[in-house]
Amino acid sequence: MPAFASILSAIAVPLLLAASPAPVAAAQDFTSNATGFHGTWSSGSGAVVTGAGFADPMNNNKPFTYPANTGIAFSFTDDGYFEEAQYRFIGNASEPHCATAVVIWQHGKYYFHNNGSLTLDPAPFVADGRIQVQDPCAATTEVLTYYSQFELYNAWTITVDTHHAAYMLQLYRFDGSLFPRLYLTVRPPSMLPTTSLSAASNGSASAVGGTN
Hints:
- The structure is a single chain.
- The N and C termini lie far apart (37 Å).
- By secondary structure, this protein is mainly beta.
- The chain is globular, with a radius of gyration of 17 Å.
- The longest helix has 17 residues, at 2-18.
- It has helices at residues 2-18, 197-200; strands spanning 39-43, 71-76, 81-90, 100-112, 118-121, 130-134, 142-146, 151-153, 155-161, 166-172, 182-186.
- The protein has two helices and eleven strands; from the N terminus they run αβββββββββββα.
- Strands 1, 2, 3, 4, 5, 6, 7, 8, 9, 10 and 11 form an eleven-stranded antiparallel beta sheet that branches.
- The chain is 10% helix and 33% strand.
- Strand 4 (100-112) and strand 5 (118-121) form a beta hairpin.
């Protein structure tokens, strides 16, 4: 499936580059942030969220509930766990009707580092992550497979966005470019269990005890 492989490559390459740390200006400074890190943070309209409203990754028949709009969401607990949800489209300039929908979910542990960076490591639950690609013009129009991607962000800040009247989490990619702004939507975070779902599941994430 060459088309699917190229889509995976387009998604993974920037994150693989991010795994090569680059120096940042200052060490981690928690005191300058407007609020704590824990909670659920979502981009744009907030249509994409983490937790059971978005993903049931052990349910191969219906692993995702597609939201009304595209976006990205992260959730973080106080004890070092994260969850990530993404829904986006990849355009096709030569065949506009062949836009590809990509849905991603993974979870694992997150770490703050002395140089100010943040890493997200799905290794503790490497078998749980899922990616689903829907391409209406491909020979196989829908593909579901495993997803596990280490991510590094050079820095992060939390401020108050007065326009949205909300806390805003700004992540900085490996090259210093800005990640889409994320807004605090709920606290405590809305997440699936912070355990290995694949080890405990009988076909649905709800089988291991619901959400946190």
